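Technical note accompanying the year-one report. For the benefit of new consortium partners, we illustrate the data format agreed upon in the data management plan: each record pairs a sequence with a structure-token string. No post-processing was applied to the example shown here.
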Amino acid sequence: MAEQSRNEIDTFILSLPDAEAARAFLQRLESEHPERAARCHRHSILLLRLLTIAAYSPFLAENLLRYPDDIDWFERENERGMDYVKMTEQMAEDLSRL
């Protein structure tokens, strides 16, 4: 990963409410799931969203690391554009995955 990109990620992590949790999540992601981590680094918005989740919820961060297929799901949602409004049924389905 480029040094500039690493600095941008570190700056973002420092802006999160629990920077240590986000940093620990990133380290574990890189060591336990290096292929997925590399994909996340290539798609920076995906990585930033995962780090935000990790900073706000240790439970969800742990689940993402235990069930890395959920990271793949986030990647697909990111490619589809996560900025659209979902219906209640879609939200319930998404939440049931976690």
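Partners are asked to follow this layout when depositing records. Helices lie at 3-15, 19-32, 34-42, 44-56, 58-66, 69-80, 88-97.
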